[in-house]
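Known limitations

Files may contain more than one protein. Parsers should not assume a single record per file. Below, a two-record file is shown to illustrate correct handling: read the sequence, read the token line, then continue until end of file.
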Amino acid sequence: MRLLTSARKQLASQFRDSHAHIRGNGADDRSHAQRAYAVDGVTLTKAVTDVRIENDVVTVVFDPASVHADRETWDTMINVFDNLAEWTGAPIAFTNDESKALRMAAETVDAVYTDGSSGGSLTKAEIYRMGTGKDLPADER
């Protein structure tokens, strides 16, 4: 049990520390500078207050107040994602060994706010398809 707890903490740490990101599609009216700053991930990363893995779900908790933003400012100026799971799931979106190891630990990535509201959710298959354009390999389903 101790090894499992240690492995989960390590995986949660890898999700938390990952600097990988998926760029937005430019379909909104936010300025290029705003998108570049937010997509860089610095502000999003600073707003992460918890990452946990339980029951095959990675949950990433965001608190806009931790980056001195109210929810309106967060939604209009900082968060460029309609579904924050696109950003939080980026570490499992690729074909490398690290991404595969992380995918084996979770079926779903959820983004939530400290007030309990949802920031979005995606399955590992959806995230993999976003990153690679392919279906999840059969041995990972």
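...continuing to the second record:
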Amino acid sequence: MPDDYLPTKVLQTVLEQDVGDGAVIRRLFIGDESFRSACEDFVLASEMLLRFESVTDGSRQAEVADYRDMKATLLDELRHIIGQSKVPGATGGPLS
């Protein structure tokens, strides 16, 4: 992750997606490396999508579609991890 990706920026971006309980998201972000990595990937995909969408000549439509799919997949992954962390006895991460 580049140096300008502060953990607070990544966390805030994920919290803005309304993917689950903010307290659970914060706990996972601090204690679960795979969740934090998925959050970072989501932010990168979101930023790349914005870049490709800003190209107005239509030459980046394939990339736009790919990044939209990637962003949706990452949101599903985040929701899954959050959901698993709420299940008693779940083994989705170190804090499950």
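Parsers that stop after the first record will miss the second one. For reference, the second record is described as follows. The two ends are 25 Å apart (CA to CA).
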